[in-house]
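[User]
If only I could read backbone structure tokens as easily as an amino acid sequence. I have put the entry right below:
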Amino acid sequence: MNVNIQKLYTIAAKPVRTIIGLMSGTSFDGLDIALCQFTGSGPGAPVSIKHFITKEYTAKFKEEIKTIFASHHADLEKVTVLNAYIGTYYAQLINECLTDWGLSADEVDLIASHGQTIFHAPKHSHPHDHYANATLQIGDADHLSVKTGIITLSDFRQKHIAAGGEGAPLAVYGDYLIFSDPRENRVLLNIGGIANFTYLPAGQPAGFFSTDVGPGNTLMDQYVQMRYPGQYYDKDSALASQGKINEALLDELLKNDFFEAPFPKTTGPELFNLNYLNQAMANSKQAGISNHDVLATLAAFSAESIIKAIESTVGSGNNFEIYVSGGGMYNPSLLSHLQSHFSKDIQSTDVFGINPDAKEAVLFALLANEAVAGNLDSLSPTAGIPKVSMGKVSFPL
């Protein structure tokens, strides 16, 4: 047997696996690195976070990614060289972490790398009738695996699409396996660049689902980067808190076919970008409002998108609890809008022992754990969610 296959077989048979999960979102804040320990697999299998850090990207690297991100006319040479560079860069960051944590590569079973999304193209969002759903993440896992010496699983979204899904959101698998409860209806809300949530009805695996709902931080971040050079986001909503919600602009922002499309669905900055905002400002005749008012309105736009999605799918009552993760949870303007509407405290996933900043990295580590050791039946207990094992394997040798 090939030595790599033998090693993977041995890892799959272990009672406890140590897996590094990696996540880099559409905000380009940095690389989330979560060292996780899984005991067994499937629903209820214990997971613990042994170490977590976000390795911040340099300003130069962020600008390089922005040149090809969500662009219909990206430089193909830049895409190609960044694909290899990001894999190598991730490996460097992991090796630094292992040194800081006093660990060797031999003590880690697997790496699970999401990669960097540069374009997400569900069928409903592109004009090519003869093409189906598609997505593209770069950061080649062979470079990552060779330069760390650790077997790496990557490119998780492609299998989801191949099996009939849209490639997102993938959180539904981990949310179900980690957070479902026999007594409490739960909404697991993640506010990243794009906002999405998973609904977990109490003790009813046949009723859960996950969906994108619209922009989370992406429009606010893009606007800040345009208007305030050197800033990448509105920290603590310091800018938005000085403004007022412009109702005319808010109404116009909410007028898009995406919001009327059936659930579940996916979207991205390919739709919700500065062109979208500029068009809404022109249509509503609000092009002259202050930066502060724009940001206050964009925070309300993200919140209203979330509210409308939850109420149209889960209901408007209070028979569910909301647990939040992602960068948007640190935006007081956005979060207070949600809390006041639902008349409840929105808690973070910290209450379950899962650092909300680490949650997405943990979920990809979980997908790798399920890919090598899980039972497919435990991944998809309901119709409409592809029953698939996600992740392509890259060996270090």
In short: The chain has a mean pLDDT of 93. The first helix runs from residue 3 to 13.
